[in-house]
Amino acid sequence: LKRGALEEPEERDEALTIIESEVARLNRLVADLLLLARADGGEKLAKQPVELDTLLLEVFRQGRLLATASGHSIRLRLGHEDQATVLGDPDRLKQLFLNLVDNAIKYTQEGEVVLSLWKDEALGEVRVEVQDTGIGIALESLPQLFRRFYRTDKARSRQLGGTGLGLAIVHWIVQAHEGAISVESEENKGSTFIVSLPLPSNDTLLKYKSSPTAFRSATPIGT
């Protein structure tokens, strides 16, 4: 802009687009760093019963907007008939699944993203999968995937506005909900992120309804 780009509409628009993109990326970086700082400081989750079917429908609708803008498709699959209810922080859980869906869309050039939910009462857990047909992840990168600032493709990640903290935050949110996360991937064929969360017993849900404050601020983020 200092070199007179404002006098050329095309150059001006390109410069402003770059500035807006960098400002948005820096805002995301600051927000992510603040969240991780609060997690390191022992900030605790405010847990409550969360209907994952309803929450994932919201995630799906937001993901569909992103997918449509990128020329992709996204599907939602529910592998059970009744609601899958977990104890958790709805805002953090939504952030968790939006991060995974957003990543899947960003790194998928062709094909689709599938968001799936299954409830397994025998195992006492629910499982959420985010599957894509994207570029995949190299085998040697998988053990490092949830480290802060780790990027499998630094140039592409920066181009897409990534901060290198999204998956670290995902990992912490899963841990704070006493869950587990794993990933299956093959280069040039796609990736599947699998999140398992514990199903609370009916007794636990009844206790929550009778004394909801007993479950609030019970689990530090990142434990």
Topology diagram in text:
Blueprint: H1 9-40, E1 44-46, E2 48-51, H2 52-70, E3 73-78, E4 85-88, H3 90-106, E5 112-120, E6 125-132, H4 154-159, H5 166-176, E7 180-186, E8 190-198, H6 202-210, E9 216-220
Parallel strand pairs: 3-5
Antiparallel strand pairs: 1-9, 2-4, 5-6, 6-8, 7-8
Describe the structure.
With 223 residues, this protein is of the alpha+beta class. The chain has one domain (45-220): Heat Shock Protein 90 (2-Layer Sandwich). The chain is 42% helix and 25% strand. It is built from six helices and nine strands. The chain has helices at residues 9-40, 52-70, 90-106, 154-159, 166-176, 202-210, and strands spanning 44-46, 48-51, 73-78, 85-88, 112-120, 125-132, 180-186, 190-198, 216-220. The strands form three sheets. A five-stranded mixed β-sheet has the order 3-5-6-8-7, covered by helices on one side. A two-stranded antiparallel ribbon has the order 1-9. β5 and β6 (125-132) form a beta hairpin. α2 runs parallel beside α3 (90-106) and α3 (90-106) runs antiparallel to α5. The longest helix is centred in the N-terminal third of the chain and has 32 residues, at 9-40. It is globular.
